[in-house]
From TrEMBL, chain A:
<protein>
    <recommendedName>
        <fullName>DUF2849 domain-containing protein</fullName>
    </recommendedName>
</protein>
<dbReference type="Pfam" id="PF11011">
    <property type="entry name" value="DUF2849"/>
</dbReference>
<dbReference type="InterPro" id="IPR021270">
    <property type="entry name" value="DUF2849"/>
</dbReference>
UniProtKB/TrEMBL annotation, chain B:
<dbReference type="InterPro" id="IPR045169">
    <property type="entry name" value="NO2/SO3_Rdtase_4Fe4S_prot"/>
</dbReference>
<dbReference type="Pfam" id="PF01077">
    <property type="entry name" value="NIR_SIR"/>
</dbReference>
<dbReference type="InterPro" id="IPR005117">
    <property type="entry name" value="NiRdtase/SiRdtase_haem-b_fer"/>
</dbReference>
<feature type="domain" description="Nitrite/sulphite reductase 4Fe-4S">
    <location>
        <begin position="119"/>
        <end position="272"/>
    </location>
</feature>
<keyword id="KW-0408">Iron</keyword>
<dbReference type="InterPro" id="IPR045854">
    <property type="entry name" value="NO2/SO3_Rdtase_4Fe4S_sf"/>
</dbReference>
<keyword id="KW-0479">Metal-binding</keyword>
TrEMBL record, chain C:
<protein>
    <recommendedName>
        <fullName>Oxidoreductase</fullName>
    </recommendedName>
</protein>
<dbReference type="InterPro" id="IPR008318">
    <property type="entry name" value="UCP030820"/>
</dbReference>
<dbReference type="Pfam" id="PF06073">
    <property type="entry name" value="DUF934"/>
</dbReference>
Length: 102, 551, 168
């Protein structure tokens, strides 16, 4: 699989734009206020390819805050909360799936 | 140990300053991400799923105790208290901040450690046998030649922007622990009939998307011609390697497309023009590098001292001794492998505390020297046999005496989807689950030598093609699936594994591997026929029938 | 784009002329390789200097017959990550004996200046003005060089050897 940045955009449901913060690499989400947040709950959610392309294009205009932006699937739960939409994004949000060495 | 001098120290300080300046320019916007990325990569800095990752070279797998302690310090201060030893004699820190990287690099540079050329399309960290200088099997210390290549390739003006990355491995022993046949260039150091030292040169080996075993293009290259010949290879590759498709840019594709013979001809023609030039290694130059390797002042000791004989009455010690201790070239001494594969832990990970313990043990018993092998284990290459019992007690107390070296749960695994931005599927939890199935070490010993290699994507950092059992993670419709191969090997008889059958799901992998192993136990000609030999004798068919019938 | 020669920003006296444009009378011109080869015979008689832009996918050895009538060779970095022109530069200097000006063109950035200089380029056409201003710093960042290349800097192997011989 190519990294998500290199994939053709297919939108079949809610998506958000995500990237890594330049200064420390932390996972961030594009907000509707044209900024970035480490909290997925603050992400701008769109559901069409056109909106996703627009959201991504705006996010890519400036590469000084966050880098490697791409469109990622999300899931909207019954209570309205937003969750990552696939395993890769779940790992990005929650960390590795095993106990880290300590 | 190779002793860095003031030149090396000045260079490393200059490199850190340059990177510090590049980070400042990146953060100010003077450098775009596209411009910065190759620069950070050439210092070992990746951007992974959760954070930046710093990859540090352990040149030819040799470390001293102070260097390992400094790595522990970096793990504690700038990361989350642990590091991951890779299949390429590197260590990776997974949670480092870009802003703090120059500081971490400066701390490492003080002890001669760096991440230079651990990534990027350049000549990478040259790797070799982790038993170099200690094993009785070798004809010379291959690290001398790895060090000459390290110096030659460091910031090479012509070969810093190659079509793709370039990996060189060297072995000087008949038994190849450096996987030289699956490198861009593999060098086999040996003596010819006249007793002179030279290299057999293999090119075009490699794993990844299109795996190949390297082809021999020169049976004997006198050692003094090493650099001119490598330069000829690099120059042909730099000009003619493909740049239109990243997946076809490695030298193996060039060698495959034009043929090894035509490639060799081009190299020889280039070499003829430069072999007598500035790269010709004189005896003085070789002696200069050789003289900077400081060897332990071994005591005159007998093999099998009383302390060892007495300790071997302890069954636990005896088990560890038989598994993890190997023959040294100096009587009364041994090579000790430290398994970084405790059952259920991430393969190749070591905590900062464990690094400190190993550094202390190296100082107390092993002339301050530590090695790292491509199997993701550590090694203390120079241990007096009389010290083995005490060494074992201290390793055991630190959780570092799992006697499973070369066994079914000594699994090689890349970081996989849990860390890596390129991965399609997880590798570490698969390794953990398989290791747990064989947690009974008596059972594992009964199975014997068996290498399981797991990669989380086709880039093959887990060397799955050359695992006796290879496991490759792929993605299908958003789910993790795994392809299984059997019969691969990375040694002097290197070959690529054969696909067993259709890919299976994440949950099915441990059971399937257990079935493969059970099938081997039933089919083997006797306890002395290793897994790899049974597969060679019978092929994968009998395994396929049994395994897929059960699933 | 600023042109740097031997560490100084200089005026570019060569005019780049497209394949279909007329060559300006009496001016030094820099032309593409196709035109240069096509018009090689007529260019022989030209009184003003001629330079050629040699692409990085054409073997540099093919330039050999024309060297004595060239006043400038420009090699190309289509993107800074494409390093073929480094090999071409070294071959021009070390194999073909080119002593005239050798220019790095294309996506030429500060962090590659030193590599270019070490490979034999003496003219660098920088993309960014700020990079050109930082030229001196960029090529003097290092005092230690491990391997011999086209430049005169002694390699570390030989520096060490020198020290051993002198017994320092």
């Amino acid at each position: 699989m190519a990294a998500p940045q290199q994939q053709k955009l297919k939108v079949n449901g809610p998506v958000a734009v995500t990237a890594n913060r330049l200064t420390d690499g932390a996972v961030v989400w594009r907000t509707s206020g044209e900024g970035w947040s480490v909290d997925l709950a603050e992400a701008a959610i769109v559901t069409t390819a056109d909106d996703a392309i627009a959201l991504l294009a705006a996010a890519q205009k400036r590469d000084l805050d966050a880098v490697g932006a791409y469109v990622a699937p999300v899931v909207i739960e019954a209570d309205g909360s937003v969750k990552p939409g696939n395993l890769r994004e779940r790992i990005r949000v929650a960390g590795p799936t095993f106990e880290l060495p300590h | 140990m190779y002793a860095y001098d003031e030149f090396d120290r000045a260079f490393l300080a200059e490199r850190v300053d340059e990177f510090r300046d590049q980070v400042v320019r990146r953060l100010s916007g003077a450098l775009t991400e596209d411009e910065f990325k190759p620069l950070r990569l050439m210092n070992g800095v990746y951007l992974q799923l959760h954070a930046y990752m710093l990859r540090i070279a352990i040149p030819y797998g040799t470390l001293n105790a102070d260097q390992l302690r400094r790595m522990a310090h970096v793990a504690r201060t700038y990361d989350r208290g642990y590091g991951h030893f890779t299949t390429r004699q590197n260590i990776q820190f997974n949670w480092i901040k870009l802003e703090e990287l120059p500081e971490a690099m400066a701390a490492l540079a003080e002890v001669g450690v760096h991440g230079i050329q651990t990534s990027g399309n350049c000549i990478r960290n040259v790797t070799t046998d982790q038993w170099s200088g200690a094993t009785p099997e070798e004809c010379d210390d291959p690290r001398i030649w790895a060090e000459i290549l390290r110096q030659y390739s460091t910031l090479h003006p012509e070969f810093t922007y190659l079509p793709r990355k370039f990996k060189i491995a060297i072995t000087a022993a008949a038994h190849d622990r450096a996987a030289t046949k699956v490198h861009d260039v593999g060098l086999r150091l040996h003596r010819n009939a006249q007793g002179e030292l030279g290299f057999e040169v293999l090119v075009g080996g490699g794993l990844g998307r299109t795996p190949f075993v390297g082809k021999s293009i020169r049976p004997f290259l006198p050692v003094r011609d090493l650099l001119s010949y490598i330069e000829a290879i690099m120059r042909v590759y730099n000009q003619y390697g493909r740049r239109d498709n990243i997946y076809k840019a490695r030298i193996k594709i060039l060698v495959h497309e034009i043929g090894a013979e035509a490639f060799a001809k081009a190299v020889e023609a280039e070499w003829e023009a430069i072999r007598g030039g500035a790269l010709h290694l004189t005896d003085e130059m070789i002696a200069e590098i050789r003289g900077r390797f400081i060897y332990p002042a071994f005591q005159a000791l007998e093999d099998d001292p009383a302390e060892l004989v007495e300790a071997l009455k302890d069954a636990r010690f005896a088990t560890w001794y038989r598994n993890s201790v190997h023959k040294h070239k100096v009587p009364g001494h041994s090579i000790v492998t430290i398994s970084l594969k405790p059952v259920g832990a991430p393969p190749g990970d070591a905590t900062a505390d464990q690094m400190d313990v190993v550094a202390d043990l190296a100082d107390d018993y092993g002339f301050g020297e530590i090695r790292v092998g491509h199997e993701q284990n550590l090694c203390l290459p120079n241990i007096a046999q009389k010290d083995l019992p005490e060494l074992w007690r201290r390793l055991d107390a630190a959780g570092l005496a799992t006697p499973n070296v070369n066994l079914v749960n000594d699994i090689i695994a890349c970081p996989g989807l849990d860390y890596c931005a390129l991965a399609n599927a997880r590798a570490i939890p698969v390794a953990q689950e398989i290791a747990k199935r064989f947690s009974d070490l008596d059972r594992a010993r009964g199975i014997g030598r068996l290498h399981i290699n797991i990669s989380g994507c086709i880039n093959a950092c887990g060397h799955h093609h050359v695992g006796h059992i290879g496991i490759l993670g792929v993605e299908k419709n958003g789910q993790e699936f795994y392809q299984i191969t059997l019969g691969g090997r990375a040694d002097e008889h290197a070959q690529l594994g054969t696909l067993l059958g259709p890919a299976v799901s994440y949950e099915q992998v441990p059971g399937l591997i257990e079935d493969v192993v059970d099938t081997y136990m039933e089919l083997r000609a006797g306890p002395h026929e290793l897994f790899i030999d049974t597969v060679a004798r019978l092929g994968v068919e009998p395994f396929k029938e049994r395994v897929y019938a059960a699933h | 784009m600023p042109l740097i020669e031997n560490g100084k920003i200089i005026e570019d006296r060569f005019v780049r002329v497209g394949d279909d444009e007329a060559l300006p009378e009496g001016a030094a011109v820099l032309i593409g390789v196709d035109r240069f080869l096509r018009e090689a015979e007529t260019l022989k008689g030209r009184q003003a200097p001629v330079g050629v832009i040699w692409p990085n996918d054409r073997p540099i050895a093919e330039i050999a017959p024309y060297l004595d009538r060239l006043s400038l060779i420009a090699l190309v970095f289509p993107i800074f990550r494409d390093g073929r022109a480094y090999s071409q530069a070294r071959l021009l200097r070390e194999r073909l004996g080119w002593r005239g000006p050798l220019r790095a063109t294309g996506n030429v950035l500060r962090d590659q200046f030193l590599l270019m200089e070490r490979s034999g380029f003496d003219q660098i056409e920088a993309v960014k003005g700020a990079d050109a201003d930082a030229f001196d710093e960029a090529v003097h960042r290092y005092t230690v060089f491990y391997q011999p290349a086209t430049d005169e800097r002694p390699s570390l192997l030989r520096q060490r050897l020198g020290r051993t011989v002198r017994g320092v």
